[in-house]
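Our platform keeps sequence and structure together, in a single record for each protein. Such a record has a labelled line for the sequence and another for the backbone structure tokens. This encoding replaces a full spatial description with a residue-level series of whole-number codes. Below, we set out a record of this kind in full and without editing:
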Amino acid sequence: MKDRGSLEEGLGLAAQNRPDSQVAQTGSIKPTDTAFNSQSIDMKAVADRIQATAPSAVLSDTPAASQATSGTSDAIAQAMPQSTTPQAAPPPKVDESALRYFASRGDKARLQAEISRLQALYPDWVPPADPLAIPQNSDKQLEAMWQLYSEGRYAELHKAIADRQVAEAGWQPPADLLERLDVAEARARLVNASDLKQYATVVDIGANTPSLLTCSDIDILWRVAEAFIKTNRTTRGQDAYVYILKNCINPQERLATVQKASALLPYEPMQELLALEKPDGNGGRELDSIRTDLARRFVAEGNDDPKLSVAPDYLSQVERAAETQGLASDALLLGWYHLRRENHDEAEKWFRIARTKDDSASASQGLALILIADHKPKEAEDVMYRWRNETKDATATYLAATANLMALQPPANLSEDVLGRIAAEVIKQKYVPTAQEFGWYARSLNQPQTAARWFETALRWKPDDEPSAYGLVITRNQLNDQQGVAEIQRLWAGRSERIARLGETTPRAPIGSAPLPSPNQAVPQTTVTPTSPPPLATSPAMAETNINTRQRTLAPTGYSGPQRQITVRRGVRGPRGCSTTINAQRLNPADALSRGWCLMDLNRPMEAIEAFEVALSGPAGKVREDAAYGQSLAYLRAGLANNAAVAAAKAPLSRQRAAELQVAILADRALTAFAAKRYQETLIYLDQRAQLQQERTDLMVLRGYCYLNLKMYDDAERIFNAVAATGNRDGNRGLIDLRLATHPDPSD
């Protein structure tokens, strides 16, 4: 058959040495690897020459057989194996039993398919002028066999044939019936293998039964194409789909072919298939109804492969759908596509649209990743907190946001609720980067005990984390825990030079951003450890501003707190001058140090900070110590207590200087917290300072007003009485404010 031959050649399934007289029967073929060898006739070259008007040669008995347009040109016929039957051979006898059966049943579709088949097998055969007038089979038993075949009762048909052969010696069933039975059973085996995902078996059955591969049974072609792709022969599968689109004309089947192919083939091969699209006859194209779905699929594929550049037309198609249909899923597709290509502005726009329509873990995760990349971890943490446990990727994104948030410089102003929930999740997940950042964060708040606990926790989860070990050793050194310092230095000997030579190296580099997670990064799921580190005592001070522009808010009682007093002593300095403005970067460390002290005398702390920073670039020694000490003083004078604490850690200081700075920093933080009406936080700072130095009278008054605002009247009275006993007027004023608070009516 011409049509069958073109299919066999096109898909590489040609049977070998098949006599023309037995074309309708399944011939023997070579093993599967040979049958599908890439050296067979190229499918595209064959399919390009198929003529749509050639007669159908469908061996299946489905109604669609009469509509098949498969055929071959003369050139293809020449490429087919040629018959070796002598020209003088008598024409074979035409078996018209199936024709008579279908005519008797009035099945016009199958009757026409049978006529087409017989014409392809026997070119000289002329069908009856009125097939419906063909008399019924006189052989009732044979007619019953055809009935069994028609109903798909193949086992009963086999039994009927065997019974008649036993009863009638020498009787043979029609070859047409046997061939149809073999093909039908092969089809059933192929479908079963496909359903069971036994794709190699599907390919093997297709190779041994090429008569199945026609437009009349499109489902078999689909299954064979899928089997090729699933067995890593994508090009063969693509050829099968191309063959269908070039030769099969049923509109619904062509549409379904593209849909099935798009689910299995990657972007580039699909573009070749879409090039075979035809007009629909109504001024449109046959794929218009699924064009948006195809665009969505291609954009989704671009989300998985950042190197894939999807055509702008597809992106525009999805954008129009997102705007007109209002689906959050379309906005998500566009958001992830642009994020993979670092188009953050576009990605953020679509993720925010998606969250507006339907807040989800995917939309929030995409937005959070952009916010982290844009140095907005605080918003990222807030966006992801709700979805932190939705998926492993969501958890990884949330934890990355927390690490970046805790690493901000200057430290972010976080509420106790936010700090608490971050700490709880970090402990639950045993996430080392954020635990380490909690340690540095606590140090910036001058809470060394808490910092040490966080560093210890990070090392318990990851013993080889050098930054955490370094944070712990400098914190223990700050706490004068020399035994603890020695133990860490022993454990890290040969692995960290800066730990081994603590007094000669600078502290850690400025905190950067934690790395972003990949789409599939996993975060270990763990439980809270019994010995978890304590949460931070409070949030950091308000965002720092220059002391000359800071406006303090009075407490409810009218007390504004004592004046800041920084009574630290500076080292001896040589002559210097700073009347002119110069770039401190051009000075050597010693000259920069001298200029820094000069600027401090002129009350220009911000310029002094820059000069001291240059001095810190010098070698370890007295210059570096003086520079770190001076920069801390400059920050304190500018009202930047947190920065002063960081500056103090930039070089080893003498115990006396370190204590002086710590006392001054705690006093400054207490004043800042009191001005912000954070009275409990103020008391914490005052308590910490009191452990280092006896409390001054002015700070005792501050403590009394904290008690008063917290309605701890007995404690407030005790403090104010103690201050008043020294003759301090603020003590008496405090007692008056206390009486007004407890007895508003002056007549009482």
Summary: The first helix runs from residue 2 to 11. DSSP finds 36 helices and no strands in the chain.
